[in-house]
Each structure stands twice: as C-alpha cells, then as structure tokens.
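Open question from group meeting: does this chain pack into something compact, or does most of it stay loose? Before anyone orders reagents, we agreed to write out a predicted structure and look at it together. Recording both the input and the output here so the notebook holds the full record.
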Amino acid sequence: MKKVKIIISAILILCLAVCFAGCSANHDKSSLIEVTYTLIIKEGTAERYWIAGNDEYTIANDGSEDTKEDTISSGDNYIVLKGENFTGNLELAVQDAEE
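Structure tokens returned:
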C-alpha cells in the first residue's frame, strides 16, 4: 500500500511539474491562476503545499476546502500533497484566472 501511495504522489508531482514548470510562452511574465481544492483526511496526516522556486508555502494541513487566486512566476512551480499514513481524497482544479 505504501508503494502505491508513493507512486500516486510521484505521478501527481510529475503531472503538475509538466503543467506549471516553464509553461508560460513569455518566460518573463507572471500568471494569475485560480486554485480550487477539497482535502478530505480520513486517517493519518496530509499537507498540501506549493513550491515556487526555492520557496515553500503550506496551503492546507487539515481537511478543508477553498478557492484561492495565486500569482505564479515563470519557472518551477509545484503543488504537492504529502501524507503520512494518509487515507482520504484531494480534489484539485487549476485554471487561468485572467480569462
């Protein structure tokens, strides 16, 4: 079961890395995005955080839901779900807030 969780986490990080890392056509420009999430923790612990370059920001570390707008700079941006003995669900939708 632990191996499955690690694989799912790795796939999530890879998918988000492909979506956000250097996705801007103009690499000197920032983008405004809207992130909607629902984090349900049934067992264990979980933390959803954002990595932007060398900076790390905790977004949620308890069961919660919210919609936030964030400005991301071009370059490395990752949304990460880290859990320990985590059983639950994360629903995440990211869209361009400037449309």
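Observations to bring back to the group:
Residues 1-7 have pLDDT under 50 and may be disordered.
The chain has one domain: 2-96.
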